[in-house]
Amino acid sequence: MITENKSDLELVRDFHRVWHPCTQHKDFETTPPILVERAEGIYLYDRQGNRYMDVIASWWVNLFGHNHPRLNEALTRQLEKMAHVMFAGITHQPAIDLADSLVALSPPELEKVFFSDNGSTAVEVALKMSLQYWQEKGKTQKEQFAYLKGGYHGETLGALSVCGLEIFRNKFEKVLASHLPVEGPDCFRCPYGLQRESCNAECFEPMEKALSENSDTIAGVIVEPLVQGAAGMMMYPPVYLKKLQTACESLAIHMIFDEIAVAFGRTGSMFVCGAHDLRPTFLCLSKGITSGYLPLSATLTTDEIYSAFYGETRKLFIHSHSYSANPLACAVANETLKLLTENNFLESLKPKIAALKEYGKQFDSMEGEFRQTGMIAALELTKKKKERFAAEKRVGYQIFLEGLKRGLFLRPLGDVVYFIPPLVITEDEIGVMLNTAHDCIDAILK
Amino acid sequence: MITENKSDLELVRDFHRVWHPCTQHKDFETTPPILVERAEGIYLYDRQGNRYMDVIASWWVNLFGHNHPRLNEALTRQLEKMAHVMFAGITHQPAIDLADSLVALSPPELEKVFFSDNGSTAVEVALKMSLQYWQEKGKTQKEQFAYLKGGYHGETLGALSVCGLEIFRNKFEKVLASHLPVEGPDCFRCPYGLQRESCNAECFEPMEKALSENSDTIAGVIVEPLVQGAAGMMMYPPVYLKKLQTACESLAIHMIFDEIAVAFGRTGSMFVCGAHDLRPTFLCLSKGITSGYLPLSATLTTDEIYSAFYGETRKLFIHSHSYSANPLACAVANETLKLLTENNFLESLKPKIAALKEYGKQFDSMEGEFRQTGMIAALELTKKKKERFAAEKRVGYQIFLEGLKRGLFLRPLGDVVYFIPPLVITEDEIGVMLNTAHDCIDAILK
Description:
Two copies of one chain form a homodimer.
Chain A: H1 6-17, H2 27-30, E1 34-40, E2 43-46, E3 51-53, H3 57-60, H4 69-81, E4 90-91, H5 93-105, E5 110-116, H6 119-136, E6 144-148, H7 157-160, H8 166-169, E7 180-182, H9 205-213, E8 218-223, E9 227-228, E10 234-235, H10 238-251, E11 254-258, H11 272-275, E12 282-285, E13 297-302, H12 303-307, H13 327-341, H14 345-348, H15 350-360, E14 368-373, E15 376-381, H16 395-405, E16 416-419, H17 427-445
Parallel strand pairs in A: 6-7, 6-8, 8-11, 11-12
Antiparallel strand pairs in A: 1-2, 2-3, 5-13, 9-10, 12-13, 14-15, 15-16
């Protein structure tokens, strides 16, 4: 791997020193990571000037493209005042403005905003608030969470304890709190033989049963609304969430919406809950909140929850991170919300969403399913009769490597090739993205 | 609370929208948070121009003062290239440089660096790596961690499960994995009647027993070296850590050093482990790593650990955060390390450390203990015979309020008034800080 090339020498340093997330480093022996030097709009550039389209928006975070002049300016403007200050006993304008905007943009029941650093912590905060709420209310037996078997909510051990996916859990099962996994929607392989466009979420049955049979012990239920991301962009209809809301309201169970991956225009609306008239008790936000600039997250909740912690000193909610409500991140988030709400930005996504659908039709001839929710599209590749490829074949990984050769940074989840580009991608670029992906897949499957 | 004053109107918005960490919001009815508008050096300024000394370095994070030209420049220079890019399948220069520097500055056994966002996640990563290591090695019964009853390691539920302090745990006990709490050092109230300056860590006895009796099931032991911060800046001598190392090495137990609060010059050296010739298996870093600018953390470990995850695909370490190794944060961290290592900076702390000691003598006449480890000083206030004040008296909180009147932002832990100023504080400012704190305490206790 070592050559005279400066870039390669840096890759050797990387190999010797850096432990990358979710990476089998042995793969780097043959294909080292791309050394990205700069980024602009929807493109990443390596040191040699090779260009890669950021097809998955750098782990689903980037909305307005890299190196955006207004986001850069918002950051530097705040930097001139202060980078950071602690957030207990102190407040600051960027956080106040951001909390106010998030409350204004979300369903009316959500009134309070708690800031933390990433999606996992946003979920941990919701879980802890829910648990403590029931304790303060004397319902101390409510200490369990229901979650979907396809659900993903982060990888700190609390968040992981409500994650349904075996691959994330299996090495750590012994230290995970025991909660209640429930069979969730699986529209591609619907056991009821129905279609997500026309069904009545008949698959809500196991959740209905789990909640009604355990309502005394269940504090809350957590879901990724509409799209179960890490499970392979499994998409399901809003009627499932309507039924969930009805059940939660009648059984006094908190409804926790993890919109970390789907909020801020990603499905075509600001928030899934708002677009579908849903009223979660907790709304967890992160990723796109800073348009892919800086780590920041928020957990929104109701005054009913907040008021249970208000009063005596011993009732307070004890959870902190040193950089909670980091002013730089809040400033970028405020500018992100401006970009999302001005000039009918969300409206401007409609032709792009249509383009994703249109160019997606070329996958109809492949085995599997092309599915789409707003600006998220995914192609689940299978053998005949929806049969999965053998894991050892690493079909998704081969497609990833092929994508690199053709200027796409894809990162399939197993054999699900997915597309979560920055929202500023153009219709033409959507065409290039899907056409090139098609070529990559063809090259590997043939 | 509402007046015509713009600042007050913003505080009303804060009160209605923001849920602050570790805060009983009812206190804001009488004393709202300070609305900090800008910060410079060791001072915070509110909208009216009132100045507060940042005595606790914004939750122990700030090393080089606010609004530091070189840190600002490092951030904007990186911003021109890219704010962020995902860190799986991709790498970038700021992360490579930072990993390389951290490895160079830490004990030679630590060779690999895993980045995450905050102290809690740095600890969660160490716990998860340790657990999985033993699984990959076939020692699947090693699934427990020993921790100190005075230990604090963060508040996500995994980190909280190895936190010994009841106040952080008690509402969440039912969802915490069961690990092994061990009586740790308590030098102020030493049960052996010894002095920390001259003892031989006789108090290691319970840990020795716990580890030797449970070595088959213990994966690792986690400690805050030298200073147990959240417990009230409880300080103990390095000989305890030497004994811990001997025990861990002979019993095949991982030693996890949580240096989140004590690294980067805080105790006078770069890392506690390096200064005392200790060889932890995992070193958790955060807080000062960006000198108080941006959330970032790192978990360092050995090649022995790393190699257990190298090879087959199924062995990889599955843990990720979207903003892992954020380039902006890494760039600021690289500049922070430059500032720490050039011009004999650590050497320059010596007269400051001496000044803290000298000015601290004025507390000798008070009941309690003034203690110090490097640039950390703390005054534990008690009644006669080391008896604690009643919690309802909120002595520490009264001192906090008095501090605000006199231009100090203190935030006592219970009745422990502590001082963790930015490292760039001058000797004169140390005098002002401790003299003013003395006046505040006098005003409250008389």
